[in-house]
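Notes from hallway chat w/ T.B., transcribed later so I don't forget. T.B. wanted the structure written out for a chain they're using in a teaching module, and asked if we could keep both sequence and structure tokens in one place. Agreed to drop them here.
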Amino acid sequence: MQIRLADVTHIYAPKTPFETTALSNINLTIKENEFIGLIGHTGSGKSTLIQMLNGLIFPTYGKVYIDNREIREYKSLVDVRRKIGLVFQYPEDQFFEDTVFNEIAYGLKNTGLSEDAIKKRVSNVLSLVGLEPKFFMERSPFSLSGGEKRRLAIAVILAMRPDILIFDEPGVGLDPKSREKIFNLIHSLFNEGISIVMVSHDMDTVASFSSRVIVMNKGEIVLDSTPYEVFVKNRTLLDKIGLEIPETTKILLDLKRCGYNVNLKIFDIKELKKEIARFLNGRI
């Protein structure tokens, strides 16, 4: 599956005193097997952009294509949203059923699956996100912890077998252990063939997981490249627009300034430790 935005502009409250241009002339293509990190300040247009990707909102100007078909041409956007799943920042906003089972099964009931097939799929996706089916099936979604709610929200989308998953700040509000579980789950889904678009303010996570980083500022895409090109080669631009670089990059740049010949393409903390150990001859 491919998503393409052509000359997309989106204006909120047009022709009123509250008129705001959220996106300005966006051209963007998202292909299969990509892990895209989307970064930028609050108000840069990130949330508007990701809602545009599965038809929650439409452009004021320009067009959005899903597999080379303009999104407004679809008679129903249900099929689009089954293939392009969006996990919101606060998953409890998506819940409305009384049990975890019913929450996941709701969207499956109109797919033609038998009752047994639905039960099997619900069980499978719960196991996939690390929620034991026997323990969680009959629990209320609203009784879960923050990390469990986030994993349930992912399970709801996974049950529809999407090609692309979009995450809006998946780590926000979680304790460190829960955050690690969520990000590891997202990375494992990418390894299984699901394309990922992830909005996050966690630059270290974006840099270590993403194959492509898109930087937004004032409704425009100002950078679109590899983590190395964005965070190392263009760190002056990031500083100019007020965005941080990963902590791993800061450490490596400091070591570089001290005369150490380090690899600036490292973003994973474990690889950073190995790199430091390399030039310290294993003394750590």
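Follow-up for T.B.: Residues 3-245 form a domain with the Rossmann fold fold (CATH 3.40.50.300). Might be a good example for the class.
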